[in-house]
Amino acid sequence: MPEILEPVVLPTIINETKDKDTKEPRYNVICWNDPINLMTFVSHVFRKVFGWDQTRAEKHMREVHEKGKSILIQESAEKAEFYVHQLQSYKLQATMEKAE
Amino acid sequence: MVVSSEEREVFTMLFESVGNTLPHLPVDISRETGREDDAYLERQEMLETALKEQRDDNFKVIAGWMRDDKRWKENPDKIHQAWTISLDEAERLLAHLNDLRIGAWIILGKPEDMEFEALQPNKQRLPWISLLFTSGMLQEALCEAIWEN
After folding, report:
1. Beta strand pairing status for B80-83 and A93-98?
2. Are the beta carbons of B147 and A48 separated by less than 8 Å?
3. At what angle do helices B5-18 and B38-67 cross, to 10 degrees?
4. From A23-37, A72-86, B39-53, B85-99, the region with the lowest mean pLDDT
5. How many CB pairs under 8 A join A and B?
6. What CATH number labels A24-93?
7. What is the pTM of this model?
8. ipTM of model
9. How far apart, in Å, are the Cα atoms of A35 and each of A64, A65, B86, B136?
10. Which of A83, A89, B87, B122 has the fewest C-beta atoms lying within 10 Å of its C-beta?
């Protein structure tokens, strides 16, 4: 008798697509105003930590000074935490919060 | 920094005199409100000690730079001398000046209003106010110099 071949069932490939809810959440890094750190120093820290030019650093510095805070950057949780620690090491008031 | 020979000595002695204030200068430790458990307080105390040691060590290193004749180059006018530090060393000095400034601010009661009169100058407070403003002025000059280079 001829050999009967078993049908081969190929696995179904499912393309996984992440919907909005399952994407990695983003976090805002926020710098808060305080009475002690000099504006010049704050700009300097922004340039050192983020590699910004003077214009961008001063823009965020003025926002901190005039509005009480500035959202500096939006990143993954891990990177945001890193930046917060960097800013805090310069004695700036920095926190992170989940972005909307 | 370019100064005359006399100014160099005054500036160096002024900086060294700050060393006498270090035992009195607090460091800025963020404390969680409501936490008074022994383990937490012990960790905070260890952190404070470590930060003070780091600050005192920074001071000794920087004071050494000031006393190092090799770092002082005579200007062509033969009257002034230029104190030379690398960019990394400038960052270290900047951080140290900020530590001094924050320490003085804590002693003054963490005032929100930084105008001179609002800081309530008197015999006891004036040295700390002086430290606050002097270190601030040097910080600003240093920030400018760092980015010019």
Report:
1. unpaired
2. no
3. 160
4. B39-53
5. 38
6. 3.30.1390.10
7. 0.79
8. 0.79
9. 11, 9, 30, 13
10. B122
